[in-house]
């Protein structure tokens, strides 16, 4: 994805380009009361830690309501853990016609590394990429061990490897999407109508 200019407007010298870093996000939050930070991780991940004042709309929910979110007049910054899911959300929202849309470069990981403020909850839900690594590694290990008895079981590990390769090439993650639907990842759930109402409200 290229850093195309979405608007000629700027806030405190920040051009309205697609990708911004943590320092630029802090400046936008400080200078522009209309900015909306939209976190597209799962509810469980969001409840564990998030940027103060951000709104949570998990990626699968966002996909279903992209047109509603695209109608928001407010400039929006998309955030996930490292940037992959936010990048997917960016594609869905721009496809629905959303303007003044930004990506936080490096996601929440970069925000934390830069010393950005966060709200921490009591949830201990693992980040999605960590969950994927655990499941993929476990399935691969089981496949290798099982192949000592049943040689064809090695293809189980091969299937996981192929899936991870496709995930990297396509910038998608079927395993992550499946895990996101598990109850412990959903957290308190997303009331999309309530979120849209709050995001539309003027400060």
Task: Explain what the structure shows.
50% of the residues lie in helices and 15% in strands. By secondary structure, it is α/β, with parallel strands linked by helices. It folds into 2 domains: 5-124 and 188-200, Oxidized Rhodanese, domain 1; 128-180, no CATH class. Strands 3-8-7-4-6 form a 5-stranded parallel sheet. A hairpin with a 2-residue loop joins strand 1 and strand 2. Helix 7 (128-146) packs across helix 9. The radius of gyration is 19 Å and the shape is elongated. The model is unreliable at 1-16 (pLDDT under 50).
How would the global form be characterised? elongated
Beta strand %: 15-25%
CATH superfamily of the largest domain: Rhodanese-like domain
List the helices and strands in order: EEEHEHEEHHEHEHEHHHHH
Gyration radius, in Å: 19 Å
The unreliable regions are 1-16
Please count the helical segments. 11
Strand order of the largest sheet: 3-8-7-4-6
Arithmetic mean pLDDT: 82
CATH topology descriptor of the largest domain: Oxidized Rhodanese, domain 1
User: Can you give the helix content as a percent range?
Assistant: 40-55%
Please give the CATH class of the largest domain.
Alpha Beta
Largest sheet: 5 strands, parallel
Count of the separate structural domains:
2
The termini sit apart by: 32 Å
CATH architect. name of the largest domain: 3-Layer(aba) Sandwich
Number of strands: 9
